[in-house]
Amino acid sequence: MIACSNRRWGSKHPWVAVSGLGWILGVRRDEVLGRHREAIRAAAVRNKAESIALVGSVTRRDDSDYDFLARFKDGASLFDMAGLKLDLQELLGGDVDVISAGGLKDKHRRILEDAITL
Length: 118
Prior knowledge:
By secondary structure, the chain is an alpha+beta fold. The protein is 25% helix and 29% strand. It has one domain (27-117): Beta Polymerase, domain 2, CATH 3.30.460.10. The protein has helices at 29-33, 37-46, 78-92; strands spanning 2-5, 14-18, 22-25, 49-55, 66-72, 96-100, 116-117. It has a four-stranded mixed sheet, with helices on one face. A three-stranded antiparallel sheet has the order 1-2-3, with no helix packed on it. A hairpin with a 3-residue loop joins strand 2 (14-18) and strand 3 (22-25).
């Protein structure tokens, strides 16, 4: 593995290159839970989310994109959800998916098992 910086895009966040696998995120789960927790909460509040949780494979310490489950306030729009996604991508320096808790069906509730509330 080769550690480098994504200076081309003006990001100060670390990335890690893995031969044959392409680029994966270098900011790990522990950093999200520690160093970035307050900034993630602030981004959620700015974008009308009442709560936010880290979900998906990164909660099990797998390297992947970041998946967040957000519960939005009444009156929030898709623009708020998109704004949260963009804010989190810039903060974490990589791919982020934001899922609205209001849109979860019963068959998708299993993602809550690994959820880590921030």
